[in-house]
Fold these 2 entries.
Entry 1:
Amino acid sequence: MLETVRGWIREARHIAVLTGAGMSAESGVPTFRDAQTGLWSQFNPQELATEAAFRAHPQRVWDWYAHRREMIAGVAPNAGHVALAAFEQRHPGRLTLITQNVDGLHQRAGHTNALALHGNIADDRWLDAPRACCRVDAIEAGRPPRCPVCGNLRRPAVVWFGEHLPTVALEAAEQAARHCELMLVVGTSGEVYPAAGLALTAHQCGARVVIVNPEVTPLDAVAELCLRQPAALCLPLLLA
Ligand code: APR
C-alpha cells in the first residue's frame, strides 16, 4: 500500500495535506481533548475555548493557554513534520499544507507557508476591535495583558468554538482542495468542520484521498486508501 501511495505522490502535480492533532501526537502534544491533566482536568476544553468563557473568566482561560503554550514550547517537531517541510523545499509549489493545529510545529520544522486554519497558539490579538489607544508597544502586563487606557484585553490568536476561520487561509485551503490530485489526511478525527469538509471537496473534485491515522474516521468513506500508521512513522516513508 505504501508503494502505491508513493507512486501517487510521484504522479500528482498538486498535493494537498490536511493535518490534525494526531500529527503532533508523537511530539508529545496531547490532543485537545486529551489535554486536560492536573489542575485543568476539572474543565471541559469546549467550555474554555470560547469567547464567552474568556469574557466571563479571562484569567482562567488565559492561564489555561499559558499552560498549553509552555507545554508546546517544550516539545519539538517530529519526523513527520520534518518530512513534509523537506518535501515542500524539494518541490516548491507542489504541496499545500493545511493544518488545524495551533502548535506551530509545522512552521518550526521549516514549513514557510502552512495554512493555519485555527491560528497559532503563540500569537495574541486584541479581544475587541482596537482603538487608537490600543498600542502593542504599550501593553500592560497581566493575566491577560491589557490596554492601560481602555482596558481592552489581549487574547490568544486561535479560532475558538463558534468563531469564523481566517478567510484568506480558508479560501486558499478550499482552492487547494478543489485543484489537488491527491489529498493526504493526517491525524485528524475528521469531525470538526469546515476543515473536515476539505477532504470531501477534494474527493468530489476527483482527487485521490489517502488517510494516515491508526484509527477509523468518518472521512475513511471517501478515501481511496487508509494507512493505519502513526504520522511520524508513515510520512517519512511516503515522502522520502
Ligand atoms: N498519527 C496519526 N494520527 C493519530 C496519531 C498518530 N500518531 N495519534 C492519534 N491520531 C489520530 C486519532 O486517531 C484521531 O483520529 O488523530 C486524531 C485526533 O483527533 P482530534 O483530537 O479530534 O483532533 P483534530 O481532528 O485535529 O481536531 C480538530 O477540533 O478540538 C478542535 O480546534 C481543535 O483543531 C482542533 C479540531
Note: Strands lie at 15-19, 95-99, 115-116, 119-126, 154-158, 182-186, 208-212, 225-227.
Entry 2:
Amino acid sequence: MSAAADRTPTPDGARIMAHIEALAAISESSAGLTRRYLTPQHRRANDQVAAWMQDAGMTVREDAVGNVIGRYAGDDADAPALMIGSHLDTVIMAGKYDGMLGVVTAIECVRTLHARGVRLPFAIEVIGFCDEEGARFHSTYLGSRAVAGTFEPSLLERQDDDGIRMAEAMVAFGLDPGRVAEAARPADELLGYLELHIEQGPVLDKQGLASAVVTAIAGATRWVVTVAGAAGHAGTVPMALRRDALTAAAECALAVEDVARSFDATVGTVGRFAVAPGASNVIPGTVEFSVDLRAAEDRRRSELSAEIERRWREIATRRRVEIDIETVHEESSVACAPRLRRQIAAAIAREQGDIVELPSGAGHDAAAMAALTDVGMIFVRCHGGVSHDPDERIAAADAEAGARILLDVIEHFDPTG
Ligand code: HGY
Ligand code: MN
Ligand code: MN
C-alpha cells in the first residue's frame, strides 16, 4: 500500500512537543520551570494531563497521594495492566523533559491505539507520578513509593522551607494524609512497569543514536547535614578562637568532592548550602547543606559514605564544631528486568538497528516501582546530555522515535516474556 494511502494513525512527535511546552508553562516561577509537590502548579499540571488522558480514550483518577492515573481497558475489562509513566514534578529551575516526556509519550501511544480502535489482552495504565524529585519535602520517589506500598508515614511530618508540614499541604490540596496507604497497588494488578525518560547523560548524543535500553538504576544516598559552630562578631573574635560553621562546612563540601573523585564510578554533590545568621559582619554559627551520593554498586556507595564521614570527624575535631547527618533518602541500585530489557531491545532494533544498553546514574520512579513489579526503561537522547537545567533539549524526531519504540513494546508485549 502506498504511504499516502496508509492512514493508520501513528504517534505524533509534534503533539508530544506541544504537550511538553504546555506543561513547561505551568511553573511556580516566571524565571524558569519549577513545579513541586502539592503546589497549585501540581494541581494545574494534573488537570491538564487528565484532560489529555481522557481525550486519548482513558478513564482517569487521582490516587491518595496525588498521582494522576489514566486507564485504557483491555478487551477483558478486569485484565491486569501494563503500567507506563514517569513524574510530573520538577527540580528547581528544571528542564522541560525530565519526567514529563515519559508521561506525555505514554499518553500519545494510548491515543494512537485508541485512534486505531485497538484493544489489547491487557489494560494500559499511564501514571504521572506526583513527587519524584522531592524538591519541596526531600521526599524522593514519594508518588512511586506510595504505589509500590513502601511510603514512609514519617514523611508526613517533613516540613518545606516555609515550615509547612506535608500533611497540612496534603489537606490543602484536597488529600487525606490518613489515607495515603490506599495508593498502594496489589502486585497482581500489574504486568510490569515501563518508563521512557531522557538519558540525562551524553552517551546517546555522542554515539548519534536516539534510544537505548536501560540496564540498571544507580542507588543514591541523600543527607541533610548541619554544622554547628559559634556565631560571633566579625570584628572582635580572634581567628584562633573561632568556631566558624561556614569554613568548616566548606571544608566538608570539598571533602565530598575529593573523596568522590578518588573513588571510581561514584559521584558526590553538595547542591544546597544555607548559612545562618547570614550577615556579613557575623561569624556563621550554623550551616545546613545537602549531600547527594551515587554509585552503580551499593557496596561502593557505602564505602564512599564511610570515608566522607571519617574525613568529617577529623574536620569537626580540628575545628571544634558539631556535624550532624540526617539521611533523608536511601535507595539501593535496581536492575531492570531481563524480560523487559529483551522486549525493549527488540523494539529499539526494529526502529534504529543498533542496540545500546546503558546504566542510569540518575534515579527514576522505576527504582521505587521495582519493589512491586518488574521494571524496564527506554532512554531518549537529550542534547549534550544536559539535564536539571533550562537548557535541557530533545529533537521532535527523537520524541517521535521514542513513542514508536514504546508503542512497539506495547503492541508486542508478552507478559510471560
Ligand atoms: O536525582 C535524580 O537522579 C532524579 O532526577 N530524581
Ligand atoms: Mn530529575
Ligand atoms: Mn526524572
Note: The first helix runs from residue 13 to 24.
